[in-house]
Structure formats: structure tokens, C-alpha cells
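Quick note —
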Amino acid sequence: MRTLVAVVLAVVTSSLYALSTALQALEARHAPRSEALSASLLKRLVRRPLWLAGGLAGLLAWPLQAVALSLGSVTLVQPALGCGLIVLLVLGAHVLHETIGAREVAGGLAIVAGVAAVGWAGPSETGSFTTTGSWVTAAALLALAPAPYVLRRLGRAGGLPTSVAAGLGWAGLGLGTALLDVALADRNLIAAVCWGALCLAVTWSALLAEMTSLQTWAATRAIPVAFGLEMAVPAALAPFLTHRHPPHPVAFSLGLALACAGAVALGTSRAVARAAVPLTEP
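Predicted structure written out below.
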């Protein structure tokens, strides 16, 4: 029952994240390219009501994700976030009247089947992180937090680097949120504050990278990269960072691969891209 509730919450979370992406990307497309990977980009966008509405949707999604991670394993919740692509597909089909073809149907079914397989083959709960796993996650979040500014310094503000940075940032947020849940469950206030601060820092980083990627790259290319990394990285690393391991590792790996393949198929769909970035070239 806990697993089912976790999946339902993950689907609601992914729907809110999808709505957040759609609203915020629409405004990001109109921002000057000179502000790519710069704090001035977010300063400009935060003045736009539509962008703020998207931010509110994302803000509501995070605590739901935290609750989902407290009930189910990170290896299940993160892949389930791919259901947000199915929500975008439905929006693209019914609101924008985009055509749904065999690729879209296959992608949606692959995500559902993959998440179901991961739920069956993976651990029911995340479990406690190993000491090494906690330190590795903390180091990764610290490295991801300044990523947009490093990319800007290196002159790598293009679509691929920023999409990768966004995907890794959202993936890191999933792991950091899981550790925040553990700290809260253990009533370790200092650890909870530290993990909360790291989560906020990496959220800023991922958001800035995502807005830049959707500003500078076609949505059909940016979306599958970001979603694929957000789904796959935490689920793939969790068995090495925690004391819980998948009871059926082969089926778990195949299910995760299937869910990610579905995300790539849907992410490259015109219907999904048009829903994610309305009224723009996909």
C-alpha cells in the first residue's frame, strides 16, 4: 500500500513539474540570449506572472516528492517522475491537437511498464544511506550547485551542456531530498538544515540550467536529456549509496532501461515538445 501511494504521489509530482516546465519555458524563450546561465535570467523571469505560476507548481511538487520518497524507494519514485511526459503528451494531443503516433504510444507504454517492473524488482524503501553514500551525495550536490556559472565561464551555454546540467541537478535533488527525509525521520535538525540548504542550492542551479537549455535548444532535444538523467541517475546509484539493493537486479535494470527509453521516445515527440514549450518551435 505504501508503494502504491508513493507511485501516485510521484505521478502527481511529475504532473506539477511538467506544468512548471511548460509555464516557465514559455517565458524563458523570450529572454535575451545574453543572459544565458546568468542570475540575471532568473531575476528577469521572476518578474513575470506566468513564470511565477510555473514556479509555484514546482514549489508544490517538491514536498510531494519528499513524501513520496519517504514512503517508497528512490529507485521507484525517480523513474515514476517520467509520467510527467505522459501528462505533456495528453496536453499536446487534447489542447494543441498534435498527432499521437506509434512512437508516442510506445513511449508511454514503455514508461508505465518500466515503472511497474522497477516497483516489483526494486527495494520497497530507500533505506538508510551508507556513510560513504551520504558523503558522495553531499559532494555531488556541492559540485552541481555552481555548475551553470562554471559552464558560463567556460563558454558552454549551449543546449547539450545545460540540458545535462539540468538533468543532473534534478537527479541530485532527488537524492538530496531522500537524505533530507532520513534526517527528519531521525530528528537530526542540523543534518536536515544542511540537506535542505544543499537541495535549495542545487534547485537554483538546475532551474537556471533548464531555463537556459529551453531558451537555446529545441525542446525535442533538451527534454529527453534532462528527463532521462533525472529518472535514471538516482535509481541507478541508489543501490551503491544505500544499504538496500534490488532483490531482482536484472529485472530492475531492464525496467529502468525501459522507462528511460520511453522517456527518450516521448521527449523527442513534437506533441510533448509543443506542450512543454507552447507556441514555440519544438
